[in-house]
Amino acid sequence: MYVWPCAVVLAQYLWFHRRSLPGKAVLEIGAGVSLPGILAAKCGAKVILSDSLELPYCLEICRQSCQMNNLPCMQVVGLTWGHISQDLLALPPQDIILASDVFFEPEDFEDILTTVYFLMQKNPKVQLWSTYQVRSADWSLEALLYKWDMKCVHIPLEAFDADKDDIAESVLPGRHTVEMLVISFAKDSL
Ligand SMILES: C[S@@+](CC[C@H](N)C(=O)[O-])C[C@H]1O[C@@H](n2cnc3c(N)ncnc32)[C@H](O)[C@@H]1O
């Protein structure tokens, strides 16, 4: 397991907005090492980490990140994108969904948005804060966002001091092209 460049950029966005985090309900999906979720919890958010129910090793990595960062009580659940499982049904309404580098296989894009759409039914004001590494110019979320009644705002990296090769002493972003997206329900005013 690996901290992906996107995770460092999303963590920087969270740090920039840290004063808005205390008390917020935050769910990280496809969390892996969980850098953004761990940071959100350290900033006072009520965080639930998740990764695929079919990848128990990844869920174990989430738990180890909690232990190593002195957050032993943080909830970790198995959520596979596109599956309406008991654990998804049982989740309380969320304010923010974090998703770092989850848009990497185009065949998964709609499953991810299905899970987000389900959570939008619980709280229409929930926002998906996601970082996306541009790997192919052919991939686009636009048509799927339209289909699922969602809108997307691109946040320029310079708006949160992330337009550099290294962020917070991490050189991971390097020369990768990473985009910061805030996705919300189209009928809600952002
Ligand atoms: C590129 S890694 C990103 C990990 C972490 N968010 C980061 O940026 O460091 C993709 C993550 O998505 C998870 N994942 C892959 N397929 C999934 C699925 N169908 N449902 C839920 N999680 C999935 C993987 O286990 C992995 O943790």
Automatic annotation (TrEMBL):
<dbReference type="GO" id="GO:0050890">
    <property type="term" value="P:cognition"/>
</dbReference>
<keyword id="KW-0217">Developmental protein</keyword>
<keyword id="KW-0156">Chromatin regulator</keyword>
<dbReference type="InterPro" id="IPR019410">
    <property type="entry name" value="Methyltransf_16"/>
</dbReference>
<dbReference type="GO" id="GO:0045944">
    <property type="term" value="P:positive regulation of transcription by RNA polymerase II"/>
</dbReference>
<dbReference type="InterPro" id="IPR029063">
    <property type="entry name" value="SAM-dependent_MTases_sf"/>
</dbReference>
<dbReference type="Pfam" id="PF10294">
    <property type="entry name" value="Methyltransf_16"/>
</dbReference>
<keyword id="KW-0489">Methyltransferase</keyword>
<keyword id="KW-0949">S-adenosyl-L-methionine</keyword>
<dbReference type="GO" id="GO:0035642">
    <property type="term" value="F:histone H3R17 methyltransferase activity"/>
</dbReference>
<comment type="function">
    <text>Histone methyltransferase that dimethylates histone H3 at 'Arg-17', forming asymmetric dimethylarginine (H3R17me2a), leading to activate transcription via chromatin remodeling. Maternal factor involved in epigenetic chromatin reprogramming of the paternal genome in the zygote: mediates H3R17me2a, promoting histone H3.3 incorporation in the male pronucleus, leading to TET3 recruitment and subsequent DNA demethylation.</text>
</comment>
<keyword id="KW-0963">Cytoplasm</keyword>
<protein>
    <recommendedName>
        <fullName>Histone-arginine methyltransferase METTL23</fullName>
        <ecNumber>2.1.1.319</ecNumber>
    </recommendedName>
</protein>
<keyword id="KW-0539">Nucleus</keyword>
<dbReference type="GO" id="GO:0001940">
    <property type="term" value="C:male pronucleus"/>
</dbReference>
<dbReference type="GO" id="GO:0005737">
    <property type="term" value="C:cytoplasm"/>
</dbReference>
<dbReference type="GO" id="GO:0035242">
    <property type="term" value="F:protein-arginine omega-N asymmetric methyltransferase activity"/>
</dbReference>
<dbReference type="GO" id="GO:0032991">
    <property type="term" value="C:protein-containing complex"/>
</dbReference>
<dbReference type="GO" id="GO:0032259">
    <property type="term" value="P:methylation"/>
</dbReference>
<keyword id="KW-0808">Transferase</keyword>
<dbReference type="GO" id="GO:0044727">
    <property type="term" value="P:epigenetic programing of male pronucleus"/>
</dbReference>
<dbReference type="GO" id="GO:0140297">
    <property type="term" value="F:DNA-binding transcription factor binding"/>
</dbReference>
<comment type="subunit">
    <text>Interacts with HSPA5, HSP90B1, TUBULIN, UGGT1 and UGGT2. Interacts with TET3. Interacts with STPG4.</text>
</comment>
<dbReference type="GO" id="GO:0031072">
    <property type="term" value="F:heat shock protein binding"/>
</dbReference>
<comment type="similarity">
    <text>Belongs to the methyltransferase superfamily. METTL23 family.</text>
</comment>
<dbReference type="GO" id="GO:0001939">
    <property type="term" value="C:female pronucleus"/>
</dbReference>
